[in-house]
Amino acid sequence: MRCLPAILLLVPALACTPNYGVAGKTGSVDGGADTGSDSAEDEDEDFSAYDGAVLEILSPAPGSFLPLGEPADFEAVLTDVDGNELEFDEVLWTSNLDADWSATGLSAELSDMPAGMNSFTAVAALPNGDRVADAVGGVVVQAEDTGVYAGNMVLIASGDYNGTPISASCVGGAIVTVAADGETASGSSNCVISLFGFSQEAPHAFEFELADGEVTGSAALDLFIPISFEVAGEVGDGSIQASWASNVLGYLDLEGSLEVERVTRDISGE
C-alpha cells in the first residue's frame, strides 16, 4: 500500500478553513487609533469680517472743551470695508498727558480725564490680528474758569501831604492766568503814575484763590516801598473783576481795580 506525503493530506483542510474576518468594516475598531474624521469641527473661526476694518472716534471732537471732573461722552465706531458697524468692545483709550490713565469700550461716560490739552487715542486689537487706531487732539480738559485773561488795571492815589492835595491815577494792561484746576490764578500789571512830581512805575503781582465764583487773595505793589493789598472780586462767564484799597504812610490812599476777559482757554504756554 502506497501512502501519500503528509503535506498533501493537509491541503484540502487548509482550503476549507472558514474566513472569520468582519465583512464591510474599515478603519479602526474599538480601542484603535483616531483617524481624524472629526477634524472639520476643529477648524479656526472665520474673522475675515474684520479685514480692512476702520476705527473712528466720534466724541470728543478735536479742539473741544471738557469741564474738569464732569462726565463726558467718549464714543468710537468700528466699521467694515462696506461701512457696516462691527460688534467689538475691546477698545483702549489713552491720553498723552498721563501714561497711567486709560479707559475701555467703544463708548463710555468718563469724568477722570487728565487736566490740560489732551490728545486722546483709541486702539483696538482685532480678532483677525489687525490693529486699528484713531486719535483726536486739542481736547481741553480743565475747570470752567481756566484760561488766560487780559484787560486793564486802574490805580488811583489820593490824599493830603502837609496841606498839599494828592491826586493821581494810571491805567495799565493786565494779564491773569487761571490754573487748570480753576482754584488759583496769578498775573501781573504795570502802569506809570505821577506822584510828588515824579513819574513812578507801579508794578503789581496778583495771587488769587477762586471758589464758588468769588475771588480772594493779594495784590502786591512795589511803589517806593512794597505794599500788599487784600483783594476781593468775582469770576465767571469768562471774566474777572477785583478791587483792593489801603492807606499808605498815613496820608496816601491807594485804590486799585482789575477787569479782565478770557482770551483763550489754552494755558499750555503759561
The total count of helices amounts to 1
Within the largest sheet, what's the order of strands?
A: 9-10-11-14-15-16-17-18
Helical content stands at under 10%
Largest sheet: 8 strands, antiparallel, barrel
Low-confidence stretches: 1-42
Annotation, overall tally of beta strands: 18
* Category by helix and strand content: mainly beta
How much strand content do the residues show? over 45%
> How would you name the CATH homologous superfamily of the largest domain?
Lipid/polyisoprenoid-binding, YceI-like
Radius of gyration: 42 Å
List the helices and strands and how they pair.
Layout: H1 6-15, E1 54-59, E2 65-67, E3 72-79, E4 91-95, E5 102-104, E6 107-110, E7 116-125, E8 131-142, E9 147-161, E10 164-178, E11 184-189, E12 192-195, E13 198-201, E14 204-211, E15 214-223, E16 225-236, E17 239-248, E18 252-264
Task: Characterize the structure shown.
- There is one protein chain.
- With 270 residues, this protein is mainly β.
- It has two domains: 50-142, Sandwich (Immunoglobulin-like), CATH 2.60.40.10; 147-264, Lipocalin, CATH 2.40.128.110.
- The chain has one helix spanning 6-15, and strands spanning 54-59, 65-67, 72-79, 91-95, 102-104, 107-110, 116-125, 131-142, 147-161, 164-178, 184-189, 192-195, 198-201, 204-211, 214-223, 225-236, 239-248, 252-264.
- The longest helix has 10 residues, at 6-15.
- It is rod-shaped, with a radius of gyration of 42 Å.
